[in-house]
Design goal:
The complex is a heterodimer of chains A (291) and B (272).
Chain A lengths: L1 H39 L3 E2 L5 E2 L5 H6 L2 H33 L3 H16 L2 H12 L4 H8 L13 H25 L3 H9 L4 H12 L1 H17 L1 H8 L6 H10 L4 H26 L9
Antiparallel strand pairs in A: 1-2
Helix pairs in contact in A: 3-7, 3-10, 4-7, 5-7, 5-11, 7-10, 7-11, 8-9, 10-13, 11-12, 12-13
Chain B lengths: L6 H24 L16 H8 L1 H34 L5 H9 L6 H14 L6 H25 L3 H9 L4 H30 L2 H6 L7 H11 L3 H27 L16
Helix pairs in contact in B: 1-11, 2-11, 3-6, 3-8, 6-8, 7-8, 8-11
The chains are: A mainly alpha (291), B mainly alpha (272).
Chain lengths: 291, 272
């Protein structure tokens, strides 16, 4: 008895030792920086460079200036728009994909996987080629005599929206697909047998069962869409300014780190709230398909 | 009963796929285009590739990218695998919280990760460059390895390890001879995912890189901002081929190891 106790203890110690690097790394390089960000957001910016250790709420008060509130509003608007369109496009894609026979499904999955893993910069740059004046789109439209002169779509709001939708669509497709793929179709058939119309069966059964996947997709689309500053950079020029752009500018150009930190804290709070709500609604602790 | 595939669904899938690939195809096509500026096709050339390989900056960036991808992949594989194995069985303080924090980089906007790392590294006085890039990349790669290994560990029948121990193997021996080979595919997949994430990262790298240290995505990002040359088309094309190879490798390693009979279900893990 005593002997087995010590063995168990020894074993626990060995396993704890295994987990030690993860603990140390996480505390030092994940939790540490996050805590410092919160502290930093309450500190004062030094006159010329760096930070003074003086407690202040000024950074958060500054966030309430109309120009920054507008930026948050714009970012939220764009994120919501992107997420909503991706929801429709991605759900349909994931759903149709999951209904194919297995070999076709595997091929389709591979076809979605490749752009998903391709450098997002490269994929956005492809849109620059399409949108720029006398680019692909103009050449085609003018060639077909639909338009007479270049549309000048590059560096406009619609270009940014298209870029966002495009960059994040694979997340939605894959989340929805995972959910639809493992759905029990006999439940839908049962609903149909009991007299439900296809639309009703879809709304009451299919949609309900695949909701966790759809919500995962929403999280995975919404969260990055707030921070993706390079989409606005590349496709929007300087015309579309998002929270991500302001944080980057404050950090790298203005060097007002405490203010950037305050902005990041608010952004972080927003995304945490989203995830909290997601868990409340779906009652799962981990994002569907993310295990 | 339920109509499986309508014509509409086929058309829809096809159109969406074309849209998904169009930007990529255009870049590849233009990388062989003679004309420097216009979108019009003026003839085939390999000049841009020749110029690309003659560019020392880009070669240096390529080497940095590879060192970073492989290095952070290995670091993440060691820390993540050991962590998943330890966390699975050991009684540890604040285990749930620790797991949440360790995997949180996946659900945190990249810009926040980049900014907190920038602030923290300058606080503790690390010199910005390869080391800071390596730490930052390792931190966002760990979750991929950790989650892969964790989900594989759950699926392992404990009777294998028990059988090995009944036959006289020590715990350590049983782990090395039985558990490790069984989780090896998950480690490999996690590392490949990490590598793919690392060689694609712009947002975090922008913040934590040092003066004169470039990676390929950083190089592309800068040139997209100051004006592109067809050389970038050629570079993107080569990077795309590398990505394609990695994706195929992941698929292959999964199928070979018969991770799960359906094969597809397993892929959900890739979806971050």
């Amino acid at each position: 008895m005593n002997n087995s106790m010590t063995t168990a203890k020894r074993r626990n110690r060995a396993l704890a030792l295994c987990a030690a690097p993860l603990y140390v790394f996480t505390l030092l390089f994940v939790l540490g920086p996050l805590i410092y960000m919160v502290i930093l957001s309450f500190l004062t910016r030094a006159e010329v460079w760096g930070v003074v250790n003086e407690f202040t709420f000024k950074n958060y008060a500054d966030l309430l200036q109309p120009v920054y509130l507008k930026t948050f509003g714009e970012s939220l608007k764009l994120a919501l728009l992107t997420t909503a369109i991706d929801m429709v496009l991605g759900y349909a894609f994931g759903y149709f994909m999951a209904r194919r026979p297995p070999e076709k499904r595997r091929l389709l999955l591979l076809l979605v996987m490749v752009p998903f893993w391709t450098s997002s910069l490269m994929r956005l740059y492809g849109w620059v080629i399409i949108f720029r004046a006398n680019g692909t789109l103009d050449t085609v439209l003018m060639g077909l005599h639909i338009t007479k002169e270049p549309l000048k779509l590059l560096y406009t709001y619609p270009a940014v929206v298209v870029g966002m939708i495009y960059a994040l669509l694979p997340f939605m497709i894959l989340s929805v697909y995972t959910s639809v793929e493992k759905m029990d179709w006999s439940l839908v058939e049962a609903a149909r047998d009991l007299g439900a119309s296809p639309a009703k069966a879809f709304l009451t059964v299919t949609l309900k069962l695949t909701l966790p996947g759809l919500l995962t997709g929403v999280i995975l689309t919404f969260i990055p869409s707030i921070g993706l500053f390079f989409v606005a950079d590349i496709l929007g020029g300087n015309k579309v300014v998002l929270v991500g752009n302001v944080i980057q500018e404050q950090l790298m150009k203005v060097h007002n780190w405490p203010f950037a930190a305050a902005m990041a804290v608010v952004l972080m709070a927003m995304t945490s709230l989203m995830i909290f709500l997601y868990r409340k609604i779906t009652h799962v602790s981990e994002l569907e398909g993310m295990v | 009963m339920i109509k499986k595939n309508s014509r509409f669904s086929s058309v829809y899938l096809a159109v969406m796929l074309v849209l998904m690939y169009l930007p990529i195809v255009l870049i590849i096509a233009y990388s062989f285009n003679k004309s420097r500026l216009s979108s019009v096709w003026t003839g085939f050339t390999m000049d841009w590739y020749r110029q690309l390989f003659a560019d020392d900056d880009i070669l240096a960036a390529l080497i940095n990218t590879l060192i970073l991808g492989v290095g952070s992949g290995i670091c993440a594989a060691v820390i993540g695998t050991l962590g998943a194995v330890g966390m699975a069985k050991a009684k540890l303080p604040a285990k749930g919280t620790m797991e949440y924090v360790a995997t949180s980089p996946i659900i945190t906007p990249e810009i926040i990760l980049g900014m907190v790392d920038l602030a923290f590294f300058s606080l503790i006085g690390l010199k910005f460059g390869m080391l800071t890039l390596m730490i930052a990349h390792t931190s966002f790669c760990i979750p991929y390895v950790y989650m892969q290994v964790k989900s594989r560990l759950v699926g392992i029948d404990p009777s294998y390890v028990e059988a090995a121990m009944d036959l006289g193997a020590s715990r350590g021996r049983a782990f090395l001879d039985v558990t490790l080979p069984m989780i090896a595919p998950a480690i490999a997949t996690g590392m490949l995912l990490s590598f793919a994430m690392s060689i694609d990262d712009v947002v975090i790298s922008v913040f934590v890189t040092g003066v004169g240290v470039n990676t390929l995505p950083l190089k592309i990002y800068t040139s997209l901002k100051v004006g592109v040359t067809p050389k970038i088309n050629a570079l993107c094309t080569l990077m795309f081929l590398a990505t394609l190879a990695i994706v195929l490798l992941i698929q292959l390693s999964r199928r070979r190891n018969g991770a799960r009979p359906s094969g597809d279900g397993e892929n959900k893990t890739e979806n971050e």
